[in-house]
Structure formats: structure tokens, C-alpha cells
Amino acid sequence: MGRMLNALSERALELGPARDAEPSGHFRISRDANNVVWMVLDRTDKRVNTIDRPVLEELAGHIERLETEKPAAIVIRSGKAAGFAAGADINQFVGASTAEIKAALEQGHQVLDRLAKLSCRTIAVIHGHCLGAGLELALACDRRIAVTNASLGFPEVMLGLHPGLGGTFRATAVADPIEAMTMMLTGRSMPAKRAKSIGLVDAVVEERHVAAAVEAAVSGDLSRKPKSFGGKAMGFRPARQFAARQMRKKTAEKARQEHYPAPFKLIDLWEEHGGDGKAMQRAEIRSFAELIETETSKNLVRVFFLREKMKGLKEGESAVEHLHVIGAGAMGGDIAAWAAAQGIRVTLGDIQVEAIGKAVAKAAKMFKAVLKDPLKIRDALDRLIPDPEGLGIAHADLVIEAAPEKIELKHKIYAGIEPKLKEGALLATNTSALPLEDLASGLSDPSRFVGLHFFNPVSRMQLVEIVRHGQISPETERRATAFAAEISRLPAPVASAPGFLVNRALTPYMAEALVLLDEGVEKERIDACAEEFGMPMGPIELTDQVGLDIALDVATSLRERLGEDALPAAPAWLTKMVEEKRLGRKTGRGLYDYDDDGKPKKAETSASGDAEMLDRLILPMLNAVVSCIGEGVITDEEVVDGAMIFGTGFAPFRGGPVHYARQRGVEAIVARMEELSAKYGPRFHPHPGWEKLKG
Hints:
- By secondary structure, the protein is α/β, with parallel strands linked by helices.
- An eight-stranded mixed beta sheet has the order 14-13-12-15-16-17-18-19, with helices on both faces. Strands 1-2-3-4-6-8-11 form a seven-stranded mixed beta sheet, sandwiched between helices. A four-stranded mixed beta sheet has the order 5-7-9-10.
- Helix 18 (about 435-440) links the parallel strand 16 and strand 17 (about 450-455).
- The longest helix has 20 residues, at about 100-115.
- The radius of gyration is 27 Å and the shape is globular.
- Mean pLDDT is about 95; it is low at about 1-10.
- It is an enzyme of class 4 (lyase).
- It catalyses: a (3S)-3-hydroxyacyl-CoA + NAD(+) = a 3-oxoacyl-CoA + NADH + H(+).
């Protein structure tokens, strides 16, 4: 079915005379009756187009021939249904020296410079994704026609880089410079209409009008958007200096320069050379080659491959077309909404009709923020069906229970719904702490029962823990893993164990922060210490975000199941706060007080944490991760690192906790933990699993 849809999609693409042309390497090339050459990039070795040395070398050969043949115009587009091009193939830079990288960049620039200098009109037709080096190829053309579904962006900053194939100077030259810089600094993609409004593309058309738009571009009827006065002003250094100061300030609010140097380097080179394209080109090549050798970039490239590995855990299809969610609370409602946004038909049940109404209203806001397109929002809302009677259970391919963490309640729910499940349907729980063996104990068919542990907020947290137990069938685990990937989440297979992986690792980090607070350390200082290390949020604020009641329940449960030496006892004042309903962000008061926008009111603090405070926070987390590996909860170290990055936000530029431990030195960490254990107690005692990591 997938192959048939791809074939139909390609048939719908306007490829001019190249539709029936035989492939010449990675391109299909043909000339129409008006002497317009159509070059269709359609890599024979990949599902999506990427731009690497073989593609650029082949393009160079075609350009050399076309320089002599002098066609009336050249049209470049993709033959892949998914889009124009997904960017550069990052594999080509792995293991290369700085000199080799610089030489490859210079060769790539020479090819695109020749394309830009061709005497005939060059036109890029863009559909679907057009990212990184793919967008840089399009920018080397005279005109860009975007199909309405196009999405354009420069994601290089996510790899600790900035554009390296001409994007820095070509994007700021053709589009509004501030908007182009913002694209590169944030890595966020831009829809076609927005791209036209800033001058990045020259026209936006439906696919059926591509031929007419190409004809207009060839005849000269498709003109570029003139630069605004503000855009012209950025050609002068004083204006760029002012804008650069604002950019640095905004960037520093999101990322520390010592951790993420790429956006700051990009601002520097634009401020210095933005008025001189050739100088900016030389600076871009030099800067990119330097950045790719930094530890930050190497680790972020590692994270890219971790993501790809986790996506690759999917085997086959889940066959889940209809999902039923039981429980319309914070997690259940968000799971239902996310699945509906991803194209799944969802029925949402709860014993309280009001809860379903609130969940649907919340979903509408999420759809607006994530999907943006009014038609997509409407379709997603159509797929999210309120179901207070639970009629969808009998038709669902997967039922996810997201009820409160009370085992008796969950058993009661399962007893009521299991007889209604159709043959082949899966039953899943979103429990974050309860043992799956205990939950499955009353089921007549535990082989189809699985844990699907999502994280809050579901729309932003990419991880889903796929929790197995002793009686699960391999097919159930396979389908659950495939389902997570199909709704654009990253699956991490784990065994049922106290806290699984993420909560097992996060709880000691949060618990130690409360001990520090109990010792009289300022909460702002504790959070600043973790944030300086690279955590997206300090542990005190995180505890408020999770909810003090939930944090207390999880910590108490883990301490009971792992033993008193594993975690410190919760301070008495924490229990009192929970009793007083001071639960954190959700009640407006917790360890912090919160403003009307839900932001914590933090006192100014000039002091930051010291090395010992940082070790007290981070090393228990690493110890818990190692215990999970040692106990077989999860054994693949790369998936462990990916799960911690995508499930907790563990400093991505450090490459994951296991990678960080190996870089810091396993023996040094073990020795440090023994010192802390002697000083603060057995909760710091290194797990025996560290011995395996030494090997």
C-alpha cells in the first residue's frame, strides 16, 4: 500500500518532460519543446533526497554541459513524494578532519556558485520538506516556486552548526535579513506562505498550477519581492550591530554560549560581513569547519543518530487505526489529542463528561499551536470523538488506560473493558510507577497488555517508554513500539521495574535537590546549578512542574520498592505542603509561587552552585541510569542516552548520561561517589553496574 501511494504521489507531481526520462545517476533530465531543461533530483539509493558530495559532483557535471548548451531555462525539483531535500547527509562529515571538511565545503560552494552564475533563468520548484543544504541548493537558483505544502528551514543549529553551503549569505540576501537570521538561529521550519511573505520564495501555488508558474518564471513574469527599507538598512554595519545585540540577548535567553556556540558564531559573522556576500561566504566556510570539530557539535550529531536509531526500532506496522483512551485527565486527554493530531481516529472516555469537554477544549488549543493550518485543525478535531459511554472500546485496535495511579481502580477498569475488546486489540496502561505484573494479574489475556508511558506535556516530550512484563507477547511489544513511532514519538523498550528508566533516574535528582533545600540552600541557586550544567529546568522548578503530590508519591513508592538506602526520605514539610494543596505550578503555589502566566517568581541570585552541589544532583541520576543497565531494565546504552535526552531533557550537548560518564571517566565518577557516600550516606554508594561500564 505504501509503495502504491508513493507512486501515485509522484504521478501527481509536475515533472515536465523528465517524468519519462531515464535516470542519469541521481537525476532525471529532459528538455521540453521550449528548450527548458527539467532536472529532477531522485536519489536511487535513498527514500528521501539528501545533498552530499556525489550529488553535488553529478550536478557539477550537468552544469558544465548546460553552460555550453545554453538552454532557455533550467527547472530543478524533486521526484520524491516527501519533499525537495532533507538537507546534507551528516554521515559525510563523521570522522573527517577539519581540512577535509573545509575542502568539501569549498567544492560544494563552487558548484552552487556556478549554478547561480548560469546565464539562463534557473527555477527551483519546492514541495514538502526543503531543509538545510536542500534549501541552499534552491537559494542558488534565480526563482523559487513553493507548492502549498512546502516547509522550508535551516535545522543546522540543532547539530551545533549553522548553514554551510551558502545559506548564511544567500538567505539574508534574498529574504528579509532579520527573518532569515531568525530561521537559522532557531532551526524552526517555515510554511510556504510565510516564506513568501519574507521573500524567501517568489510564488506559492497548488501542485496543479506548477507548470503555469514555471512558464511565468521562464518568461520573466514572476518577479522577486523588493527589499523593505529595513532589509536594505541591514546592508550597513551600524544597523546590523544594533540588530545583532538584540539577537544575542534573545539567543542567550534560550542557550548558553559556552554550551551552544553555533548561534553566537552565526550572529558574529553576519554582523561582521553581512554587507559583503563574498566575505560572508569565506567566513561561513571557516566557521562551519571550526564548529563541526567542537564537542558540542559532535555530541549533537550523536543525538541526531540516537533519534534515528530510536525511530528505527519500529518493525512493521502497528495496525492501529482506532485508539480509545480511558481517562480524560491531564495525561489521557493529551495522549488522545496528540494521536488525533497525528491522523489516528480517537474516542475519549471518562466517567465525568465535564473532563472530556475540558480535554477537547485543551486539544483545540494544542491543534492550533501545532498544526496551524485551519483545515488540519478541523480534521484533527473531527478525529477526536467524545465517548462518555465507552462505545469506542469494542471497535478500538488499541485501548490506553490513563486513570489515576490506584491499582484497585485500574483492575476494576480492566475487568469492565477486557470482555469488550475485539480480537487482536491491544490493552495499554500509561502508568508511570505501578508494576505491570501486578496490573496484569487479573487479565484473562495478559499477552496483549503493555505499558505505554508518555511524558508530560505529551505534545512536546518525544519519548514513550514501551514497558514489557513477563507475560507480554513479542507481537504486542512490536505493535506498541510501531504505534509510538507512527504518532511521531520515540520508543524506548524497558522492562517493568520500579520507576522504569526515566522516573528511576529523575527521582534521585529531584530528591537530592529537596535535601539541599532542607539544608538551607536557596532554591534559585539549586536550579541555577543544574541549568549551568545544561539541564533545561532546575530540579526545584521541575518538582513544581510535575506536582508535589505526584513527586512525593513516586519518591515514596520508589523508596519502598528499592530500599531506604536508595533515596533520601522526603522532608516533613513536603508532606505538609501536599496536605495544604500547595502542589506546584498547577495550583499557583508550590516550592515557588507562580504568576498569571504560570511562570515561577524567582528571586535574583548572583551565586551559582559549586562542584559538590552539582555532583550531588547529577551523580545520583547517573547512578540510577547505570543501575537500570546493570539490572536489565534497558540494556542498549545508546537508547538509554536517547531516552534520557528526549524524556528528561538531559543536556543534549553532552551526548547523554552514559556518554557523559564515559567522557568524564567512569573510575573518577565511582571514586567521587564513594567520597559522597562517606560524607552524606549510602544513597551515593555506586551501583555494581559501574564495573560493567569500565570494560
